[in-house]
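Handover notes (outgoing to incoming on-call)

Open items:
1. Carboxymuconolactone decarboxylase family protein: sequence verified, structure written out, both below. Nothing else pending on this one.
2. Nothing else urgent.
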Amino acid sequence: MGDEFVDRALARTSGTHQEALQDAITEHVWNGVWSRTGLSRRDRSLLTIAFLTATRAHAELTGHVRGGLTNGLTPDEITEVMVHAVGYCGAPAALSAMAVAQDVFDSQKSSD
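Carboxymuconolactone decarboxylase family protein structure tokens:
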């Protein structure tokens, strides 16, 4: 999702009660987890989309689908995550996550 995304998140929460949480996320997730070398960013994106689908974290899913496309995932691969999720997370989780992903795919298509 990139430095600009993180900078916007930090600026958006600056001076609010959310600031402490955003600082912790930036330190432990963006700087800690995403900067590790054990997995590629592409692989981390694939896993993150699956985890967000499983937990129905749709507010986060939109940005991570965009980030996954930036990190080299294809719409077909992201769709396969949703198909795979049916068996492990259930149809409702997969269907609602696919709707979020489709919105991102559609918005990317219209901006091309």
